[in-house]
Design a protein that fits this description.
This protein is globular. The protein has 13 helices and 19 strands. It has a domain of 328 residues: Metal-dependent hydrolases (TIM Barrel, Alpha-Beta Barrel). By secondary structure, the protein is α/β, with parallel strands linked by helices. A hairpin with a 2-residue loop joins strand 17 and strand 18. The strands form three sheets. An eight-stranded parallel sheet has the order 8-9-10-11-12-13-14-15, with helices on both faces. The chain binds dihydropyrimidine-2,4(1H,3H)-dione and zinc ion (2 copies). One zinc ion binds next to loops.
Length: 482
């Protein structure tokens, strides 16, 4: 065959199903050959290394717009840098809806900011106010533009939807061919317990998990899934933190409901006890749902291994610790209710999952690839362009040293946030270089991609999220009501 522009030689190629020795030939940013002894104009040696598809992080918050006119501390440049440092080449982030303002305006502003990305990207559109105009006009328009997933919150002021609003979004998604992703916690139960905890003087970060025990997640997960079943609309449950919520997903799947579950590194390695560190330190670990206890973490690994939770995203949502912004935005002594939720984890995602998962025998190497790249690419309509090593796929590759021992530090994360909750954690396995569409964009932690070199990924209709056609009494209410 003709000479390739670039060949990655001598590595062990790992996909979601296979591991094999092959050279990878790349031309025009795509994989054009998988064979022995390929020749390229440029050769990259991968002997002794694993060659993985670039990580696909389908849930992270980067430069997300806020209703006060600001945006997340993590910019597209810092967020891309951190992603590439950790072996992630594609991310799906969030465009927000501000009540009373057209979504198309905030989406356009967000797209403008994302134009500085160095990774490839797509968006979920958050729906906070499903007005008639949003349901009839804006959602179809947004989905047609390639933003083929909607995000809803069943808790959090001022984002949460009530059940009727959630049904409206499900129905609109069904009509337009979008996936709905759901934050599942019970709004009133959390509010009630939070008020009681504060009245009792329990204000420190330690009480954040007390405000939202596992049952509030199970309840909301059950409800989210039941209403999705009623409408016959596929959903993904975000950031599952406990086996009770996973059980609701598994039961629905067994009945043929199209529901998928995601979890994140913080739920398999951090714990509620981290929020009990002295002083304000616990705020560093505060995210919702809350990290739980050791038996829960082990139960989550089991749900990952049996495929109920089939995507591990970062839910990277950074708030710096020092200074008057970030975690202290509502004061240095803010109660757990008023401390912003979220932990940064873009760069740590692959190393933690590899080390704690593959390294400790909880998952296989191919499962690791499925969980960190392939399954998200499939579920969000990016496959096989992303998430695979196959002829025609984008040449997004991670050269991975499975034996390298690293202590995670803030400096290695290369994000804009001023801490990592994983500081000091020992991992085995680390990305040594990253290719994005055939260009070397990271080598030994040094990022070589110019801002603006990332591409927006418009997502076309795809089969995986096609409704089943089954609904109670065969009556499609979504066809009659906007
Ligand atoms: N919880 C979310 O739902 N999103 C961002 C961060 C968090 O903790
Ligand atoms: Zn969420
Ligand atoms: Zn999130």
């Amino acid at each position: 065959m003709s000479e390739c522009e670039l060949v990655v030689r001598g590595g062990t190629v790992v996909t979601g199903v296979d591991s094999f020795r092959a050279d990878i030939g790349i031309s025009g940013g795509r994989i054009v050959a998988l064979a022995e002894r390929l020749q390229g104009v440029t050769m990259i040696e991968a002997g002794g290394l694993l060659v993985l598809p670039g990580g696909v992080d389908s849930h992270c918050h980067i430069e997300q717009l806020q209703d006060n006119g600001g945006a997340d501390e993590e910019t597209w440049e810092s967020g891309s840098t951190s992603a590439l440092a950790g072996g992630t080449t594609t991310a799906i982030t969030f465009s927000t809806q501000f009540k009373g303002r057209p979504i198309r305006d905030s989406l356009a502003e967000y797209r403008g900011r994302a134009a500085r990305a160095m990774i490839d990207y797509s968006f979920h559109q958050i729906i906070t106010d499903p007005t008639d105009a949003v349901i009839r006009d804006e959602i179809p328009e947004i989905v047609a533009s390639g933003v083929r997933s909607l995000k809803v919150f069943l808790t959090y002021d001022p984002l949460r939807l009530d059940d009727r609003q959630y049904l409206r979004v499900l129905a609109a998604a069904r009509r337009t061919g979008a996936l709905v992703t759901v934050h599942c916690e019970n709004y009133d139960a959390i509010k009630w317990r939070t008020e009681a905890l504060l009245a009792a003087g329990h204000t420190s970060p330690k009480y954040h998990p007390w405000s939202r025990p596992r049952i509030v997640e199970r309840e909301a997960t059950y409800r989210a899934v039941a209403l999705a079943e009623l409408v016959d609309q596929p959903i993904q449950v975000f950031h599952v933190s406990c086996p009770e919520a996973a059980e609701e997903i598994a039961r629905a799947r067994a009945r043929g409901v199209k529901v998928w579950g995601e979890t994140c590194p913080q739920y398999v390695v951090l714990g509620a006890d981290d929020m009990d560190r002295p002083g304000f330190e616990g705020a560093k670990f505060m995210c919702s749902p809350s990290p739980r206890d050791a038996p829960t973490r082990e139960a989550l690994w089991a749900e990952i291994a049996r495929g109920v939770l089939d995507v591990v995203s970062s839910d990277h949502s950074g708030w710096s610790f020092e200074g008057a912004r970030g975690k202290r935005t509502n004061g240095a002594e803010a109660t757990f209710r008023d401390i912003p939720n979220g932990v940064p984890g873009l760069a740590a995602r692959l190393p933690i999952l590899f080390s704690e998962g593959v390294g400790k025998g909880r998952i296989t190497l191919n499962e690791f690839v499925r969980l960190t790249a392939t399954n998200a690419a499939k579920l969000f309509g990016l496959y096989p362009r992303k998430g695979s090593i196959a002829i025609g796929a984008d040449a997004d590759l991670v050269l991975w040293d499975p034996t390298r021992q690293v202590t995670i530090t803030q400096a290695l994360m290369q994000h804009a946030i001023d801490y990592t909750p994983y500081e000091g954690m020992q991992v085995t396995g680390w990305p040594v270089s990253v290719l994005r569409r055939g260009e070397v964009v990271m080598r030994d932690g040094t990022i070589q991609a110019p801002p603006g070199s990332g591409q927006f990924l418009a997502r076309a209709p795809y089969d995986m999220i096609r409704p089943t056609g089954r609904m109670p009494d065969g009556f499609d209410a979504s066809a009659f009501l906007a």
